[in-house]
Amino acid sequence: MYDKLREVVCQANIESAAGGLVICSWGNVSGIDRAAGVVAIKASGVSYDELSAEKMVLLDLAGNVLEGTLRPSSDTPTHLELYRNFEAIGGICHTHSLNATMWAQACREIPCFGTTHADYFYGPIPVTEAMTEKEIKSDYELNTGKVIVRRFADLDPMKMPAVLVANHGPFTWGKTAADAVEAAFVLEQTATIALGTITINPGQNQIDKALLDKHYLRKHGKNAYYGQIDDSKG
Known about the structure:
This protein is an alpha+beta fold. It has one domain: 3-Layer(aba) Sandwich (L-fuculose-1-phosphate Aldolase), CATH 3.40.225.10. The protein has eight helices and seven strands, in the order αββββαβααααββαα. A hairpin with a 4-residue loop joins β3 and β4. The longest helix has 24 residues, at 177-200.
């Protein structure tokens, strides 16, 4: 019944690995059918070379497995917590991509130094607070989702489709699973560029607000003019 959802999520997982965001089994992508309240996510520990649509596990938002004999990703509770709180998102990607993870392990947000960053993310990439011992020892994956949600108390997740979990790594999201993976690719590139920027000039200031607004809003604002108009609907 949810073959299309499984296929889309499987392909997104494969693309994250093929593009170098993931090695071994260090990552997972999920997608959600909002109307049905059904989530598809990569099975835990399965090699990307062996992925198929059948190895995507279906769950409801409470975490009950609906279809599939494999265990879902160990990060499933994090994904579900984000879906429950960020109602506009339709896909989530978690990786341990090299440079984004370095920023996460350093517990540093990624400053917005220039227009490449501003084209996609509306401001610095946020980092969460470090998790407490109690949060780590009890419902760790669920609490990972909760620290992300807390960090976004005053942020719009659709304007900032990425976060760095302190001491851990990045999560990205979007309207679809494919969008979430795209955000992960852009995040990794952004992390790399920012690292190079502070290597060249440790005292570099962040981008001017006017330039940030111009580059972000020309692509994502209500009067956006970047790209082509879709006239297919008349």
